[in-house]
Amino acid sequence: MSVPIGVAERQLPLIVPEFMEKYPKVAINFIVTNKKIDILKESIDICIRVGSSKEVDNNLVMRHLGYLESVLVASPEYIQRYGIPKHPNELNNHKLLSNNLDNENQIWFFENLEQKLNTSIKPFIKASSLTLLMSLAQDNQGIALLPLIRCRDLINEKKLIVILPEWKLPKGNFHIIFPPRSGALPASKVFLDFLIEKMPNLINKMQAIT
């Protein structure tokens, strides 16, 4: 099974033990990577992906499991020191932390009940590590764009504050990809069914703000 690092570290530990209790004879090899893997070439039975689902091969099956929301967050101390933006166009007056490494100038997409905006921003820090960005946000170093599923606990504990909560950011498609079941091993089929049953509720639960 191929799985992104974040999913392997946060979601799977909450459900895999239950599966192993039910099916103790099933052995699983987890390939933990954020890199895209050729499922058929690498003989992968199950692949979890987060993001676009447009690239799915015609010879593969995809099942949607849920959406991952993203939020802008900053520490209470940062807000007290630098203020809080009231509109996406004010973001460039702040230190912005992004996990997109592509360009020096980036486009962040926002939507509310009345309009859609494409806002050009220049990140202060770019990093592929969400853990690093979250730590920097906690340490008052700027406003970070993070998946809600990663920072939900800190938001509920008031250690991070959601910025521009009335504006929605693009959602990530949490989906599972696999070859047609006709050629799958029984162990693969039963684990796939388990993931399809458990993952949607887990994703929603881990994004609930109290």
UniProtKB/TrEMBL annotation:
One of its GO terms (biological process) is DNA-templated transcription. One of its GO terms (molecular function) is sequence-specific DNA binding. PANTHER family: HTH-TYPE TRANSCRIPTIONAL REGULATOR, TRANSCRIPTIONAL REGULATOR, LYSR FAMILY. Residues 3-199 form the LysR substrate-binding domain. Belongs to the LysR transcriptional regulatory family. This is LysR substrate-binding domain-containing protein. InterPro entries: LysR-type_TF_proteobact-type, LysR_subst-bd. It comes from Acinetobacter pittii (Acinetobacter genomosp. 3).
